[in-house]
Amino acid sequence: MSLTPHPQTLSPEDAAHFLRRTAFGATDAQIRALVGQDARAVAEDALKFDARTAPGNPFDPSTGATPGAMLQLTRAAWLFEMMYSPNPLRERLALTWSNHFVIGTDKVKNHPALAAYLGVLRQHAASPSFERFTLEIAQTPAMLRYLDNDRNKKGKPNENFARELMELFTLGLGTPGHPNYTEQDVREGARALTGWSFEGGGNVKTNYLRPVKASFNPRQHDDGSKTYLGQTGKLDFGDVIRIAATHPQTAVFVSRKLHRAFVADTPDEGAVQGSAETFRRTNGNLAAVLEELLSSAVFYAPQNRASIIRGPVEYIVGVVRTLGQPKLEARQLLNLTQTAGKMGQLLLQPDTVKGWDGGREWINDSTLLTRMQVAAALALGKTAPQIGVVPGDLALFGSENSPVQAALKGLNPSQRLYLALISPEFQLA
């Protein structure tokens, strides 16, 4: 059955919890603006994205003098968007989907390809059709290059994309003794995916800014009969995406990903099944799944508060949004992008094709020290931003009765802010 809705209007702690999870963080005023509102209405409103972007983004990847410089500007431009976007949940979801439909800048160093990939993540962040989302992301030049489908030709199939489509994007592996797909499905899927590549563009200094577009060469497509996940016919690229994206196990696999992103690092499987039912009932409508999830009793349950370790990017963006989105200099933003990489999360470059594991993997002695350095730079350093209103306990800790309050009593505002930002209570969302 579907998820049970949150039974009451939002308390201050509820509102803080919602914004920590969906907007990276928020000020006390932004939190209090949601108090007393209906949970479903709040979720619905947060999911109403528009085409607006953050004003005054200082980074233009097309001005990068080398592929490496272009990549730095691409990452910094996205970090800026996450910090200052008027659609924070859209960017939060785009970050989540970049860890699902993974590509990497070790193989994709073309600016138009990366821009198109990010554009699809944003456009479909809360898509009414997971099938359509999967098809469009699969046909981006970035994905075609990253998973080698540009080398997948009739008579010489490359199975890389066919395998990851099922294992990482849709069905998942399954359980020991009960796999969700077979090696024959991989081979047949690869045959169906033949012929799709891209034209234009490139990764080297002479063409990394050149436009690129997906292309289909029918002479390189295997148009014979295939049997894929139990369906037989002259299947092609669109057929394979449709069959995989609408498979019953895909509902569970994708729902579990969303619960890990928004509910708990180790989600309750019963709740996951509830979201999967909604996914199937709505034919993969992610907006419907997310609206129900973000207004559910399980989302607001006490055991699921402060249960997700903020990743490096979420931590950095969360600090800036909690401080009221003060203006940072371009050099600071570039440094913070690189710092996120030092903490294990270089944007658009997950460790492997399965993405960042997250959870406790984010935390070790080295990364904790780096988080302390970030907090010091933004709260104590000479280049610390000017803050209009010092954040209170609700914004910093998600509660007006945090046990940290007593420990920080008597400190000056900068010291108190620094210690709050490095506390476990802030680093957990």
Give your account of this protein's structure.
The chain is mostly helical. It folds into two domains: 61-245, no CATH class; 312-427, no CATH class. 49% of the residues lie in helices and 5% in strands. It contains 22 helices and six strands. A two-stranded antiparallel ribbon has the order 1-2. A two-stranded antiparallel ribbon has the order 3-4. The longest helix has 18 residues, at 67-84. The protein is globular. The two termini are 27 Å apart. Pfam families: DUF1800. This is DUF1800 domain-containing protein. InterPro entries: DUF1800.
Short description:
With 429 residues, this protein is mostly helical. It has helices at residues 12-22, 28-32, 39-46, 67-84, 88-98, 111-123, 130-138, 141-146, 160-169, 183-192, 237-245, 248-262, 269-281, 286-293, 297-300, 312-322, 330-342, 365-379, 393-397, 404-408, 413-421, 424-427; strands spanning 174-175, 178-179, 196-200, 212-216, 226-228, 231-233.
